[in-house]
Amino acid sequence: LYESALKVAPMVSVVPGGVVFDIPRLDRQFAYFRDYFTFEGEPDIYSVSIPGGVDVDGTYVEIPLYSDNVTHILGGGRTRGGKSQFEKAAILYLVRRYPPSVVRLALSDVKRVTFGKFDGLPHLVAPVARDAESTANLLDYLVEEMELRYQEFERHSSIETIAQYNSRFAPNCVMPRVICLIDECFDLLSDDNYCDRIETALMKLLAKAGGAGIHVLLYTQRPDKNVIDPLIRSNFPAKTAFVTTRPEDSCIILGDDKDKRAVYLLGYGDFLYKTTEVLRLQALYVADDEDPEYFQQLLLEAKNQNDPHTAWKSGLDFDEFAASLYGESSSNDNGKFKAITATKTKQSKTDFEGSFSFKVQLDEEARNSILNLHHKGYQLDEIVKAVFNLSRQDGRSYKKFRNVVEEFLNNFKDGGEDDI
C-alpha cells in the first residue's frame, strides 16, 4: 500500500551496521544560495572550499578543496539535474568569498551558456574558454603553471605542497589556488583535433596538480566510458553524481560498477557527494534568472572587493603562452617560447635549429621578469625556463637565450643599462 503511494522508489544504501531507506519528503523545498551566506568577516585563506549543499538533516555541507580526500572532482548528470546551478554556486562563492590573491579561476564552457556571466572577473587567469582549442590552450597553460610552482617548492627546503608554502609565507606572500572548472567534457574529449592534447594535459594535472594548488572540476551530461579514459576517471578522489538517465552512467560517475543510486535521484539539485563515504545533498540554488539583481550585486562586490594580500606569481602570462603555442611570438622552435627578438634572417631549410638567425633584444617586461626572479634566488636555467619556456632539451635555442640572460645579469651587476 505504502509502496504504491510513492512516486519515486526509495534509494537504498548499505551503511556500517545497517541499511538506510531514503524516502523523499512530500513537500520538497528549495535551498537558496542567498540563505546560506552573508560573506561577512575575513575568509580563511588556508582552507579554500566550495558549497556542497544541504544534507537530509538540513545541515549545510561544504566541499573542502584543500583536503586530500577531494583535490579534484568528477561530476555529471542529465539535463535539469542541477549540475549547472551547482557549478554556478561554486564559482559565485569562490569569487565573492576570496580575493584574486587567494583564488584564481580557469573556466571552460563549450555550451557557451553556463559561465558567460563570469567573464571579466579579476579572478580569471584567462577569458572563459568556449571551444576545444581554447580549452586545450588553457589546460596546457595550467600544466606549465604547475611545473613552475613545483620549481618554486624545490627552491625551499621541506616544502612539497601549496599548504606548506602558504603556512610559511602567507599572508605576506600567498600562492593562490587555481580552480579549473570544465563544463561538458564529453564534447571536448570527442573532438578529433584536440582530444589528445586535452587528455594528456588532464592526466598530467590529475596526477600531481593538487599538491600545487591547482584543482580540476570536470563535468558532463554524458559520462561515456568510451570517451572519458579510465585513467582520467580513476584520478578523481571526489565525485558528485546528479540524477542520471541510465544506471551505467551512475556507475561511471561514482566509480563503482555496482552503484546505480544516481538514477533514483529526484533531479533539480539532488545529488550524491562521494569521497571516503557517500552523502546525499541538495545543491544550493543560485537563482541567477529569478533574482538577477542579487546575482549581479555579488559579481560587483567580487570585482571591487579589497585584496589585502600579495600573491605569488609564476611570471607566466596566458596570452603570451597561448601565442607561443602557435608561433605568433616567434617562428623559431615551433613557438615553444615567447621570444623577444629583433632581427631574423632566413637560413638553410635543412637546419631546424638554425632555420632563423635572430638577435635577442630584451624588452622592459622581460628585463623586469629576469631581475625579479634573480632577486628571488632563481638559478640561470630556472630563469630561462620561467621567462622563455626553454629548457636544456631545446638545444641551441636554450643556449642562446641562456647566454643572453647571463650577459644581461652581468651587465646589470656592473651598473650597465643598455639592452643586450
How many beta-strand elements?
13
Spans of at least 5 consecutive residues whose pLDDT stays below 50 are 329-358
Going across the major beta sheet, what is the strand order? Answer: 6-7-8-5-9-10-11
CATH topology assignment of the largest domain: Rossmann fold
Distance between the termini: 87 Å
CATH-scheme architecture of the largest domain: 3-Layer(aba) Sandwich
Tell me the strand percentage band. 15-25%
Could you say how many structural domains there are in total? 2
Give a short account of the largest sheet: 7 strands, mixed
Q: Radius of gyration, Cα only, in angstroms?
A: 24 Å
The best one-word shape is elongated
The CATH homology group name of the largest domain: P-loop containing nucleotide triphosphate hydrolases
What is the averaged pLDDT score? 86
User: What's the order of the H and E elements?
Assistant: HEEEEEHEHHEHHEHEHEEHHEEHHH
Number of helices: 13
Summarize the structure.
This protein is of the alpha/beta class. It has helices at 2-5, 83-97, 132-154, 162-169, 185-189, 195-208, 230-234, 247-254, 292-304, 318-325, 364-375, 380-388, 396-413; strands spanning 11-15, 18-22, 49-54, 60-64, 73-76, 103-109, 177-183, 214-220, 238-242, 270-274, 278-282, 341-346, 356-360. It is elongated, with a radius of gyration of 24 Å.
